[in-house]
Amino acid sequence: MDLILYGIVGAAAFTAWKANSLTSSGAGAALIVGTLSAAAFHWTGLLVLGAFFIPAVLLEKFLKVNDKVEEKGSKRDALQVLANGGPSGLAAMLFLLYPHPAFLGGFITGFAAAAADTWASTIGKRSKKQPKRIFTSQSAAKGISGGVTTAGHAAAFAGSGITVLAAYITHDTGLSLWLLTTFVVVGFSGQIGDAWMGDRWQSLYQCNVCCAVTEKTQHCGEKPVLIKGKTFISNDIVNLVTVFLAAVLGGIITMLFT
Q: What predicted TM-score, i.e. pTM, was given to this entire model?
């Protein structure tokens, strides 16, 4: 049975690489995260991973706005894969070493938070309404990290919910329905934290040549000027921190109530 699961993981990583959804390094990282997920949680792990990964690929393929602001494109490299899936992969590895339900809770909420952020950023950018800075009424430029929309929030909740639902339908987690419902909220809160950290701390630059505002460290062949945030806090760092914190919170809640 495990060989079948590993085969599915390998086939999915290869297909995503061939479809230009992942770089070669991204496919390698996805293979590691997927193998850990399958080894630790079997079909539950694979379904939760799939509930995050498959919609993320489809959303970015068919709904992604051609955004010149973002640091990277829709083809995910190893850093992007690990920023989103690394915390859940770590939870799976820890579960293999010490099989406690808390690591299952962290695994699920990590992917729920990653899904919430992916859905919010992809669908939110297609909203016709002007985004607002998180926790304020100030307008934010479209495509800039930290801007939120009602559509983005709704998408985040849906993404988190679908990911947790994948864990529920296996009936193999041993976790109560109310606890899984809590995971949906934790996943959604990860997207809120991502927007806040992106608004407050993520690096943002302005090009010296065309004056465009961008997250890229190179623009028009030159290094742009930092106008906000910290140079070492990229979008990948923001994603990693917020997804990791959501996974930790999910693990703590599971530990307290199981």
A: 0.93
Angle at 112 between CA 156 and CA 150, to 5 degrees: 10
| CA–CA gap between residue 126 and residue 148 (Å, rounded) | 12
Count Cβ atoms within 10 A of the Cβ of residue 106 and give its class: 0-12 exposed, 13-18 middle, 19 or more buried. buried
* pLDDT one-digit tens code per residue, 97-115: 999 999 999 999 999 999 9
Check residue 170 and give its pLDDT. 85
Q: What pLDDT, on the 0 to 100 scale, is given for residue 60? A: 80
Do residues 149 and 123 touch, judged by C-beta distance below 8 A? no
Q: Kind of pairing, strands 204-206 and 225-228?
A: antiparallel
To the nearest 10°, the Cα dihedral for 30, 56, 152, 148? 40
Q: Which stretches of the chain score pLDDT less than 70? A: 1, 63-74
Burial zone of 256 (CB within 10 Å; 0-12 exposed, 13-18 middle, 19+ buried): exposed
